[in-house]
Fold:
Amino acid sequence: MRRLSSLVLSRVKGRAFERRAELSVVLTGDGEMRRLNKAFRGKDKTTDVLSFPLLEGKRLAVGGKGNLPLGDVVVSLPQAAKQAKARGVPVRNEVDLLLVHGLLHLLGYDHATKAQEKRMFGLQERLLRLFNHQDTKGTKKGARKKSKR
Structure:
């Protein structure tokens, strides 16, 4: 996960940014994910990935000194396993997809509009291919059925 996170951060924001960035990744079950989804999004159901940016709405400066706390990415392992089975890919690949998706949200990307969706999912697919995932097709609609944040 560290290698993939580093790849995403350095490709999207540069090596200097990547070296300063801090984030936490939590792998959890559906019970905790449902609790978080209800508490923070008002949705009383589980979901596959949630992102909690610490700097939402602030410009993420590449330069500067000191650590840069980005936030948290929370991934539901049961949901990742279910989606991996449906797509016919290894669970690890699905977890990687969800991690990249969550990281992009921490970096300010969204998919609320068609234009945003095209930009974010295109970048998501390119990053996964760089990480040697050959199963990135379908990540736009197939694997990412709808907006989850």
User: Anything to note?
Assistant: The CA atoms of residues 48 and 76 lie 5 Å apart. The domain at 2-130 is CATH 3.40.390.30 (Collagenase (Catalytic Domain)). DSSP finds six helices and three strands in the chain.
